C-alpha cells in the first residue's frame, strides 16, 4: 500500500546471484560428508548424527558465499529503504561501514543456520525414511518432506533470525536504544531486542518465516532431487552403454 505492488520483489536479483554458488557448495558438501560420516557411524545405513553433522559443515561454506548477498537484500527490503539499486546499496555500505559490514553478521548467521540446518536435514531425512523408505525418486515425498523440514527448523530458530536481521539492518529504532550507536554481536543483539520489544519480540515474524521457508525448502529439495535423479540415471546409462 505504501511502497507499491512490486515492493515485495526488492532484493530478488542479489538473492539469485548469491544463491547459485552458495547452494552448489551446500549440497555438494552435504552429500559427500553425509556418505562419508554414515559409512563411519552406521555402515550401510542412514545416520541422523551424520546427516546433522554434514548439514552443519555444509552451512559454513553456504553462508560464506551467501552472507554479503543477505546483507544487501535485507537493507533493500527494509521499510522505506533509501536504496533504489543493488549497486547503490553495495557502494554505500562499503563507503560508510567498510568491507567488514558484509560479514558483520556471519558468526551470528552461523549461530542461527547451524542449528537450523541440523534440524532441517535430520527432519528431511527422517521424513524420507517414513514417506519414501526405498529412497527412490518420488516428487511428492520430496516436496512434503522439504516443506515440513523447513517449517520445523524455521519455527525453532526464529529468535536467532530476529537477532541476525537486526545486526544486518542496524534498524534505527533499535539503534536509538543502544548506547554504542552500533549493534555488534549476538549477545548485544539479544539484549537490544529484549529492550525494544520484550520476550515476544524474539518471535516477531515467526509466521512469515515459516510461510517463507516451507515453499523455499520444498522447491530446493524437489529441484535438487530431480537433477540428482536425472544425472544419476544418465551416468548409469553411460556405464551400461560401455
Automatic annotation (TrEMBL):
GO MF annotation, one: ferrous iron transmembrane transporter activity
Family under the similarity heading: Belongs to the mitochondrial carrier (TC 2.A.29) family.
Keywords: Ion transport, Iron, Iron transport, Membrane, Mitochondrion, Mitochondrion inner membrane, Transmembrane, Transmembrane helix, Transport
Keyword Iron: yes
PANTHER family: MITOFERRIN-1-RELATED, MITOFERRIN-2
Pfam families xref list: Mito_carr (PF00153)
The name this protein goes by in its record: Mitoferrin-2
Keyword Transmembrane included in the entry's annotation: yes
InterPro entries: MCP_dom_sf, MCP_transmembrane
Catalytic activity of the protein: Fe(2+)(in) = Fe(2+)(out)
Gene3D superfamilies: Mitochondrial carrier domain
Subcellular location: Mitochondrion inner membrane
Solcar repeats: 46-130, 137-230
One GO BP: iron import into the mitochondrion
Membrane topology: Multi-pass membrane protein
A GO CC term attached to the entry: mitochondrial inner membrane
The species this protein was found in: Mesitornis unicolor
Function text: Mitochondrial iron transporter that mediates iron uptake. Probably required for heme synthesis of hemoproteins and Fe-S cluster assembly in non-erythroid cells.
